[in-house]
Write a structure and sequence with these properties.
Layout (H helix, E strand, L loop, with lengths): L2 H4 E5 L5 E5 L1 H24 L5 E5 L5 E5 L3 H15 L14 H20 L9 H39 L5 H6 L4 H23 L2
Antiparallel strand pairs: 1-2, 3-4
Helix pairs in contact: 3-4, 3-7, 4-5, 5-7
Length: about 210
């Protein structure tokens, strides 16, 4: 084998430069194209992507790296949809939002996320990336929402129900502002709400 078998460069009769590739170069080019197509097809077929780094303050979860595939994208999308379509995933409106409705939204969110995790097939849970996403979903509830609800919800609901019966001429917003510990409650609620909004954006990355 010599250089002419690989590539041939010459001038034609009209002095134009011609380059001809030998069968070896053509074969290598075909192989490379086939390899590239296989890789592209595999990524499209199975949904493999590079690691996505999530930074979640809710529940003190912190940084988490997840390499999503099609199944994980579906799970994350369902969780994101549950958040973005409820008050849980929207910024708290200090003037107009009603605390009881926020707590109702959080309660429903608990149930939907638990159901979402429960419905994940057992074989998928063997995958470490699925395990990481499940941990994020569960810890966000148990370590993010639950502490606030445990501290405030029952006491506030009891107080609010009594006051609502006595002050039927007032709006829910007016009534809730009279809660003796309103400033402390609302400060804690807003922190959790901001973390939930950020959490919703992080899930969308997947």
């Amino acid at each position: 084998m010599n250089l002419k078998d690989i590539i041939k460069i010459y001038l034609s009769d009209n002095y134009t430069l011609n380059i001809e590739f030998g069968p070896i170069i053509l074969a290598i080019a075909v192989i490379l194209i086939v390899i590239l197509l296989i890789k592209l097809f595999s990524k499209k077929q199975w949904g493999f992507k590079n690691d996505i780094e999530l930074n979640i303050s809710l529940g003190g979860i912190g940084g988490v790296k997840i390499k999503p595939n099609h199944e994980l994208e579906q799970i994350a999308h369902k969780a994101w949809t549950e958040l973005i379509t409820r008050k849980a995933g929207l910024p708290y409106d200090l003037e107009n939002d009603v605390i009881i409705e926020i707590y109702d939204s959080w309660y429903i969110l608990f149930g939907e996320i638990r159901k979402l995790v429960k419905d994940i097939p057992a074989h998928q849970l063997k995958d470490r990336n699925t395990q990481r996403l499940v941990n994020v979903l569960v810890d966000s509830l148990n370590n993010g929402l639950r502490p606030h609800l445990t501290k405030w919800q029952a006491k506030f609901r009891r107080w609010y129900e009594n006051e609502a019966e006595k002050q039927k001429d007032k709006t829910p917003q007016e009534i809730q502002r009279a809660y003796p510990h309103y400033d402390d409650l609302i400060q804690d609620l807003i922190v959790i709400n901001q973390q939930l909004v950020s959490y919703t954006k992080e899930l969308k990355k997947i």
